[in-house]
Design goal:
Length: about 240
Amino acid sequence: MQKIDIAQRLSSNAYPGRGIVIGKSADGKSAVTAYFIMGRSENSRNRVFVEDGDGIRTQAFDPAKLSDPSLIIYAPVRVLGNKTIVTNGDQTDTIYELMDKQQTFEQALRTRTFEPDAPNYTPRISGILHIENGNFNYAMSILKSDDGDPSSTLRQCFAYNQPRAGIGRFIHTYSGDGNPLPSFEGEPTPVQSIPNDIDEMTKLVWENLNEDNKVSLFVRYIDLASGSYETRIVNKNK
């Protein structure tokens, strides 16, 4: 599959929805992940990311305007030992809790399906980064309806061992804008030229998201040698 420039891919899609990037920095020293959310409704746009322990959670920017928290308030990022879980919904908690009981990433996701937001049936996208003794591997998953049919669930999981320096994978909920919103198709897209610098990566993603629809961005660089990490959070609402 041809590698893409993430700036070009983001700038050419007004509404990819929610997206996850996972990969390795160009110098091979850091595991990298980014997660962004977008919104079209006032309820979806009324959010910010806030730190929550080693992870983050979404929070209403103006609590008085929060009309339905069910699919927009959740913990996108949680850390379980040497594993970092990144998702677009409360399946973060499902993965965390079941992996803590010795189940696998895939087993945990078999208990979940796409979001119950007809007619979109928004896919649940998830990723997990595993770092141990300087080694790094990751997996990504998408749970979606079969071409908009809610009676059928497609469960796809992709595992990446010995990821190459500078290369990542990008998965997002929607292939573009529409009504209903069309689900992402295919395997996670290869991304080239992941920067060594977290601020450069943060700028690269944030500045190429649609100005009207972007809401929040999380970026984390995890040092493979030490396991220490740096985090950046950008919120449109301030």
